């Protein structure tokens, strides 16, 4: 419940501090006095967008603060705890600051908060019915939302919408896969053929480099053998071979080393040279004997090299890259086959559709039950609002294709007069009738509201006489269960209030300022009399006003 509201430097309000009570409170005043400013200020606390023009002329910033009771509202305490915005037990404080540039700061229990958080909190705290609410009744979306709110299935409707989106995404994925499957069939065939061609080559690891080296060696085998043999002859076989000459040098120095021991190191080096040269000779002999000079093997190598080269030219790559290209194609083919697993996608789509249908059927059941009950209650309220013989119905029609918001369309039908058939609300209701139907709906919906505070902003525009009295009784009855605040211009409605506030304006230092003040019993008589007879009060209007207040006081 709203406990208090403080407004500073907002529009034409310099400073007001209001304490609220339970029950039905009416707010009245002359046109232009600023009756709706209170509602605008509260709306800002509940997440509406701020504007710099809302700051009072001459002030730097506007400040709005409200205190709510959260006793017996565990869902609010849970939300506050979840968002780390908890404060004193049983009390919720909201604060909004707006500067001239339009920038604003929001606080919940003294801690910085976002507009989204304010809006989420507002859904727990206040339900506002504006005077132009009937204009939105023409929209199918509004009619659906009202029915779901009455059925208590708003959360389920959101789940249905989410399930529908998931189903559509799954269906799109399957459709895309089928399209890609058709478009990529040629690509898969091409890859399969190319992979088969390279696989038939039976490529070995690093085959091109190894084969090229072997081919070069075999193609030059005669020269290699001849050169190796010549080296052996030079080192060992000829009369003046290197080893023969080295032996002569070793023999001479060996004799001289007895004369000069310093030659011993040199002889040791020569011994090492002799040993290494002999190793070279042995190695060259083995090398020459191992070289294969088979012309048939050479021809086979040349055929293999030519096959690899021609295949590489076909795909415009280097022969050494054939193995990598084969692996790349195999990876591409695997990716194509994985992306078009239509069977798996079809199963996923069916699962999403099943989840959607289960939730949508549950929603449909709640809507059918609520539609019957809501239609009856709205029709009953319409009868009270001087629409005798009128009828009201909510028609649910199955959709050919399950929709984003369920499996049926929802349309409000009305017969404004006896003997006429039910037709869509937008096509048969006049402005006055639509206003009364809107009020009847708002009253019925409010009776099942979960929020503790209901605000009605001049919903009685265009209504008068006995109907206005009925509206006052309706709102007074709501005040037995909720905290109700109504901005009204009708004395019949104002006289039904348990509390009565008056909005006035006055000039001060060249500015027009708005004031809101509670009225006592005598002041209420004067205000109701003003509403009945205008600026000039007569004894008759005073007596009539007193009578109206006395009559309604018995029911408070």
TrEMBL record:
PANTHER family: DNA REPAIR PROTEIN RECN (PTHR11059:SF0)
Ranges for domain RecF/RecN/SMC N-terminal: 4-507
Any GO CC annotation of this UniProt entry: bacterial nucleoid
UniProt similarity note: Belongs to the RecN family.
Keywords for the protein's UniProt record, in alphabetical order: ATP-binding, DNA damage, DNA repair, Nucleotide-binding
Pfam family, one: SMC_N
Protein name: DNA repair protein RecN
GO molecular function: ATP binding
Task performed by this protein: May be involved in recombinational repair of damaged DNA.
CDD domains recorded: ABC_RecN
GO BP term (any one): DNA recombination
């Amino acid at each position: 419940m709203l406990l208090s509201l403080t407004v500073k430097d907002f529009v034409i309000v310099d400073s007001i501090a209001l304490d609220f009570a339970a029950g039905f409170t009416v707010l009245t005043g002359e046109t232009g006095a600023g009756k709706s400013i209170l509602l605008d200020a509260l709306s800002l606390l509940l997440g509406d967008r701020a504007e710099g023009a809302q700051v009072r002329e001459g002030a730097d910033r506007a400040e709005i603060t409200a205190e709510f009771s959260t006793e017996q509202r565990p869902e609010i305490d849970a939300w506050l705890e979840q968002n780390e915005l908890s404060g004193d037990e049983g009390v919720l404080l909201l604060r909004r600051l707006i500067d001239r540039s339009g920038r604003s700061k929001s606080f919940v229990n003294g801690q910085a908060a976002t507009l989204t958080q304010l809006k989420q909190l507002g859904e727990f705290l206040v339900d506002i019915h504006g005077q132009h609410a009937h204009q939105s009744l023409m929209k199918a979306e509004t009619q659906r939302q009202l029915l779901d709110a009455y059925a208590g299935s708003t959360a389920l409707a959101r789940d249905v919408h989410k399930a529908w989106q998931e189903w559509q995404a799954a269906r799109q994925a399957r459709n895309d896969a089928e399209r890609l499957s058709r478009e990529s069939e040629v690509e898969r065939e091409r890859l399969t053929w190319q992979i088969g061609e390279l696989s038939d080559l039976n490529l070995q690891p690093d085959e091109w480099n190894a084969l090229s080296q072997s081919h070069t060696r075999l193609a030059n085998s005669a020269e290699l053998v001849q050169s190796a043999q010549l080296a052996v002859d030079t080192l060992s076989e000829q009369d003046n071979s290197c080893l023969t000459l080295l032996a002569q040098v070793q023999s001479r120095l060996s004799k001289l080393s007895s004369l000069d021991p310093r030659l011993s190191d040199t002889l040791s080096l020569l011994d090492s040279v002799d040993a290494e040269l002999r190793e070279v000779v042995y190695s060259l002999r083995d090398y020459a004997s191992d070289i294969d000079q088979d012309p048939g093997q050479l021809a086979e190598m040349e055929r293999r090299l030519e096959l690899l080269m021609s295949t590489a030219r076909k795909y415009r790559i280097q022969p050494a890259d054939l193995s990598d290209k084969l692996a790349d194609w195999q990876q591409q083919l695997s990716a194509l086959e994985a992306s078009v697993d239509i069977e798996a996608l079809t199963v996923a789509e069916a699962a999403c559709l099943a989840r959607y249908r289960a939730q949508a059927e549950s929603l449909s059941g709640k809507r059918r039950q609520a539609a019957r009950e809501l239609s009856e209650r709205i029709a009953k309220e319409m009868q009270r609002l001087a629409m005798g013989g009128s009828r009201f119905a909510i028609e649910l029609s199955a959709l050919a294709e399950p929709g984003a918001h369920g499996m049926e369309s929802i349309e409000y039908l009305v017969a404004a007069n006896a003997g006429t058939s039910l037709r869509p609300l937008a096509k048969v209701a006049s402005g006055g009738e639509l206003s009364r139907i809107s009020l009847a709906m708002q009253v019925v919906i409010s009776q099942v509201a979960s929020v503790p505070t209901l605000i009605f902003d001049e919903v009685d525009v265009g209504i008068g006489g006995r109907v206005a009295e009925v509206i006052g009784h309706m709102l007074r009855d709501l005040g037995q269960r909720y905290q109700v605040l109504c901005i009204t211009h009708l004395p019949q409605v104002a006289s039904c209030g348990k509390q009565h506030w008056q909005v006035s304006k006055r000039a001060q230092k060249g500015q027009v300022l708005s004031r809101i003040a509670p009225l006592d019993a005598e002041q209420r008589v004067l205000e109701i009399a003003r509403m009945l007879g205008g600026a000039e009060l007569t004894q008759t209007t005073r007596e009539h006003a007193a009578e109206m207040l006395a009559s309604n006081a018995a029911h408070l």
